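P.,

For your records, the input lines for the assembly:
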Amino acid sequence: MSGRAIVLKIVFALVVLLTVSGSRQVQAQFLHPKITSKETTIRRVVVLPAKVNVVRDSMKGPEGMAAESDELSARVEAMVSEVLSKQKFVKTLPATGGSAEADAQQKYNVADFQTKFDDLLPKIMKKRSDVKKGRFSMGDEVLNLNLEKGADAIVFIRGAGKKLTGGKTAMRWLVGGVVPAYLRLQIGIVDARNGEVLLYTDPDLAGDPTTAIDRLRKALEEGFKKLPEVKG
Amino acid sequence: MFPHKPTILIVAALCFCIGLTSLHPIALAQKKTAPVEATPPPVNETFKFGDVDLEVLQQADLLDVRLERDGLVLADESANAYVRRVGQSLIPRGLKLERVLWQFRVLRDPQPNAFALPNGSIYVTTGLLTLIDNESQLAAIIAHELTHVMRRHTYLHNRSDRKKFLTMNVMAAVGAYAPGGIVGAVIMAVTTVAPFIMVATMYGYSRDLEREADLKGIDMMISAEYAPEEMVNVMKLLDKDIEGENVRLFYNDHPSLDERIKYLSSYLGARADKVTQQMELNRERAAYFKKMEPVMRHDLQLAINGGRARSAVYLAQRLVDFDPDSENLFWLAEGYRALGPRAPQLTEKELTNSAIKDAQKKREKRTAEEEERELLATPSGQENWKKHQQMSEQFYQRALNAENPAPVAHRGLGLLYEKLGRGTDAVAEYEKYLELSPEASDRQRIQKRLEALKEKLK
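Structure tokens returned:
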């Protein structure tokens, strides 16, 4: 075997290795046929508390960033509302409140639906394009959330990201093999009347997620690009 | 740029295996040299806080806040007070530990589990409270967790793990596995706040620390006058794999359950001078069930929501055996309805490692509705569904004929009849439910179903 052939083989093997180890699902958005056919229009939504988790990747392993994660969750939640409102003219409604007892029950309800979405998410992730076939639903139990009457849909937000410490950043440049800082969101919009998943999108951004503002807005605008605007 | 889940899992699994292999000889050496009676004092008095430990402590405090805020803590003061009372009775009198504030809470999670945070917060899930038989078993679980706090296991484990590069991969595996799937919301919350705490407190400490917690736990039980043999019995209970989940958390870490049962029995033989009378344990069981009945019912709803229908039937049957009142009969009926075409018990073949892994993969792909449809296409699935819908109907009827009938049984019957295509019967049951429960939180849903059915029947 010639030297050139060996080099080509090595390059090919490296490309395959890099493709396999570094591959990820491409950011995309998928709409339920009822949205594409305009049978259903999302005009008013209730955004449930976002759960975005960031970790600090240090030389001694990942460290929790609870306070930063909470702050980022709140920012993502607010920005989703902002983008939906400014770009698509979708109004965000508050989650209903009531007596202390009703509030406790509502807290349970929200927690249980968040869990239900977490259970559904891996199934969506396995075949995201099936959202276009209307395959995923959370069932009509969503009505038990007793949201405001005018709500068309419920927005669930999940996210994961990481920030690198100085040491880890240096290691990345010197040695390589370290996944750079990132944030990836997973957003599902669910019909508030029957639980069908109307939209799934997973916007992402590169760089430190804890300081992302404009980058985050841009990623979200991109993420909701296909969602039809509310007219009239 | 982003990690690909399966790739991480494979790498992490490999590293995890290497990690376990490296632990094994140490554990074996310890097993040979350490006599079972030689346990250290209950408190680690030599421990001094460092910056790294304070960071862990801060994360633990934030985790407490998050669990409460996210609706994962059960807001049942009586249940929390009960667990607190049992917990407090185990703590040695006059014990003061730096930076520990004892708190005992019940978590709304159908997965049987318990864990301790280094700040003194002990959590027991509704799934565990529903599975166990008596207060002594609860004491066994809490005593084990208390030892982790008193001996500062979380901090020691953290210090040790920070030195190991492999830990990172273990955490990556946990992180990649945790969101969604069959594990509970609690795990996700813990992973979010502190990946380290997730590994240490929920997936288990090292073999020697777990062993220490087991043995010290027995000592604490004896001091508090709880039946110590219940530590062994609770492990036997936890060994039940009703749902066929290979990722079971509590007491399922490095030392195998069999091994733990063996060394605990041996330690107990050396320490206990009598075995608690069965009659006494039965009395304790009755008192425990009476106290925990509302928590158990709450857990049944969580189990059904979480697709754990087999657990729901098993646990509801225990409740009915204890007290066949209308509400407990209703829960048994709900369990059978949720079970649908599934078999009530997994076969031995289905409980093998490879079968469990296959089932897990399928669960990740299929929705519950798709699973039901697939099963209903098989003769055994059809047979199961026929049997379970009959059982379900029978228990709903019994619930309605019992003293103080629970109106929700009408809702259950309505949902069952609707599924069976008995529209008129379903309408009658829904109407009865709405009439008897005008303030029901699911009124909107049932009203909508009722309207749709009436439209269909026109």
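Two observations worth noting. Confidence is low (pLDDT under 50) at residues 17-24 of chain A. Residues 119 and 224 of chain A are 23 Å apart (CA to CA).

Regards
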